[in-house]
Amino acid sequence: MGNLPRQVSQSSLFSSVRWDCVHYFDSFDQAHTRIPGAFVASIEGEKIGSKLDMLDALAMTFQFAGYFGRNLDALDECLRDLNWLPADRYGCVIWNSNILLSQAPKVALQLINQWLACAQVWAERGVPFHLAFAFNCPDSDQSS
């Protein structure tokens, strides 16, 4: 049995191309989402209760075109492109993701599956593409 990868640090999360591109954090520091040259979307997990909620949240934060089809095929197509958001790395943080995972676990799984498929395409281009599930809200105190 091979060794599992060690947990990636928050400060380097969006900086490398890795096969393990979906991450989970009990507490995530919002400062790590502000990286020069990166586009890191923020989504409030408690607002996602259905697949359409997820698609709409991703469409809004990643600024998908108005003709976005609100289905998984359209999501896949948009996440593989992102040419309207020029960046040298991409990421998404789902805040309060414990709420998403408890109220809509199938939706979270659909997102993870889509993300992994798209991350492979970005990895072939040498572009980091990460998804972080943060169990805290973005404005919570990070000093504890």
CATH architecture descriptor text: 2-Layer Sandwich
How many β-strand stretches?
4
Principal-axes geometry comes out as globular
Taken together, the total number of domains comes to: 1
Largest sheet: 4 strands, parallel
First-last Cα distance: 36 Å
Mean pLDDT: 86
Radius of gyration: 15 Å
Word description of this protein:
It is globular and about 35 Å long. The N terminus is likely disordered. The protein has four helices and four strands; from the N terminus they run E-E-H-H-E-H-H-E. It has one domain: Barstar-like (Barnase, Chain D). Strands 1-4-3-2 form a four-stranded parallel beta sheet, with helices on one face. The termini are far apart.
Characteristic key phrases:
single chain, 144 residues, alpha/beta, Barnase, Chain D, 4-stranded parallel beta sheet, 4 helices, 4 strands, disordered N terminus
